[in-house]
């Protein structure tokens, strides 16, 4: 029997369960419930390469996206600052969520990074989700401002930096419940030979469920509503008869580009929402179904790892979405991929050695 069988909950479930989402049912921890870890552990050679591929694509694409936007001063506007912030969010996912998942899911010793990293990683994972939602919402609002006020001076870099900082501060504030309820617990004294990093609500089940529902609402309703309202408001503005020549020119340009631009914005929101939907649903089910009736004990870990992997894949999409909107970015991306082939293979080799050392 594995030391962490059934104490394992997927790393990165920041929306409702903190870092790994482990719950305590009354005074009885769920790792005493007899859930078998063997099935999940037998599939580690399937999940680890998949996590590695997702991390590699996301890190490479988003780093290139950040580099290209930062290097080209002509692209320093509000929209691209927010797109850069989305790329930063995806990198945070890659740095904290994916490695933590792989290590904690398949490492027999449990959490090996210490107490401070336990809380830090949980908070950063939670904040990354909030920051992504707020950035997508801000992009939708910015698109409306561009069309509704065409002669208004665009915001400068100072405002953009302030907006990005405000998004992250607000995201960290919303992650406070995660920070307060994440616990680093050494179970080796109890003879389990493992250390866990989990979120414990310690009998406050009503507060936990309210927080879970809030995250589910916040992650889906706000960005989808922002895109819908923005599109309707822009369409209304452009239908209004006006004598303003600037607005007429914007209307003509928008008529040519609005379908592609808003389709890409909608695709970005949908990719984020649909990628996280399975994990959100699984988290909510686990919050409500404490007796493992809906998802059996035997398969709960497999379901959670699979849904978490899909959620992490959301970090891969934005570079491709942005490339489809800007042909110059796509060509530059291809050139840079050719130029960095050597560091790419060095990175690939180092990751291979690391995983072979940890998971022999």
UniProtKB/TrEMBL annotation:
<feature type="transmembrane region" description="Helical">
    <location>
        <begin position="159"/>
        <end position="180"/>
    </location>
</feature>
<feature type="transmembrane region" description="Helical">
    <location>
        <begin position="81"/>
        <end position="106"/>
    </location>
</feature>
<feature type="domain" description="G-protein coupled receptors family 1 profile">
    <location>
        <begin position="61"/>
        <end position="322"/>
    </location>
</feature>
<dbReference type="GO" id="GO:0005886">
    <property type="term" value="C:plasma membrane"/>
</dbReference>
<feature type="transmembrane region" description="Helical">
    <location>
        <begin position="261"/>
        <end position="285"/>
    </location>
</feature>
<keyword id="KW-0812">Transmembrane</keyword>
<dbReference type="GO" id="GO:0042923">
    <property type="term" value="F:neuropeptide binding"/>
</dbReference>
<feature type="transmembrane region" description="Helical">
    <location>
        <begin position="209"/>
        <end position="234"/>
    </location>
</feature>
<dbReference type="Pfam" id="PF00001">
    <property type="entry name" value="7tm_1"/>
</dbReference>
<feature type="transmembrane region" description="Helical">
    <location>
        <begin position="46"/>
        <end position="69"/>
    </location>
</feature>
<keyword id="KW-0297">G-protein coupled receptor</keyword>
<keyword id="KW-0675">Receptor</keyword>
<dbReference type="InterPro" id="IPR017452">
    <property type="entry name" value="GPCR_Rhodpsn_7TM"/>
</dbReference>
<dbReference type="GO" id="GO:0004983">
    <property type="term" value="F:neuropeptide Y receptor activity"/>
</dbReference>
<feature type="transmembrane region" description="Helical">
    <location>
        <begin position="112"/>
        <end position="139"/>
    </location>
</feature>
<dbReference type="GO" id="GO:0043005">
    <property type="term" value="C:neuron projection"/>
</dbReference>
<keyword id="KW-1133">Transmembrane helix</keyword>
<keyword id="KW-0472">Membrane</keyword>
<protein>
    <submittedName>
        <fullName>Prolactin-releasing peptide receptor-like</fullName>
    </submittedName>
</protein>
<feature type="transmembrane region" description="Helical">
    <location>
        <begin position="337"/>
        <end position="359"/>
    </location>
</feature>
<dbReference type="InterPro" id="IPR001402">
    <property type="entry name" value="Prolrel_pep_rcpt"/>
</dbReference>
<keyword id="KW-0807">Transducer</keyword>
<feature type="transmembrane region" description="Helical">
    <location>
        <begin position="305"/>
        <end position="325"/>
    </location>
</feature>
<comment type="similarity">
    <text>Belongs to the G-protein coupled receptor 1 family.</text>
</comment>
<dbReference type="InterPro" id="IPR000276">
    <property type="entry name" value="GPCR_Rhodpsn"/>
</dbReference>
